[in-house]
């Protein structure tokens, strides 16, 4: 095993998660049909999954923690801003929550990187 490669246990867990996601997407397509929205949503979620996998396996601190905050903020924006907007609801509460939570995560990351040894 290479020095930077993930452990075999982690690889099995990661492959199981990807397989479960593929089965869930397939079931969703079979049940609701294929349309542009479901294809775009699937592409976004798969890209987010690959981005998380890349950050966890290929990056080092301090960049890793900042990228984790960025990916978490993006996922939170999907839930708190994009989803209510698509459902026809107001986005102000979601926007306020997203701003506060993302700002708090970024503040924690900056504080953590300044105080913890590498």
UniProtKB/TrEMBL annotation:
Keywords: Membrane, Transmembrane, Transmembrane helix. The chain crosses the membrane at residues 12-30, 36-55, 67-85, 91-110. This is Uncharacterized protein. It comes from Sphingopyxis macrogoltabida.
């Amino acid at each position: 095993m290479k020095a930077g490669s993930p452990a075999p246990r982690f690889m099995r867990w990661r492959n199981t998660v990807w397989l479960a996601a593929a089965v869930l997407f397939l079931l969703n397509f079979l049940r609701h049909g294929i349309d542009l929205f479901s294809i775009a949503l699937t592409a976004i979620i798969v890209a987010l999954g690959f981005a998380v996998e890349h950050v966890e396996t290929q990056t080092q601190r301090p960049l890793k923690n900042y990228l984790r905050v960025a990916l978490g903020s993006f996922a939170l924006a999907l839930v708190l801003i994009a989803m209510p907007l698509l459902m026809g609801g107001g986005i102000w509460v979601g926007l306020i929550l997203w701003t506060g939570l993302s700002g708090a995560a970024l503040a924690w990351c900056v504080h953590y990187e300044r105080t913890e040894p590498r």
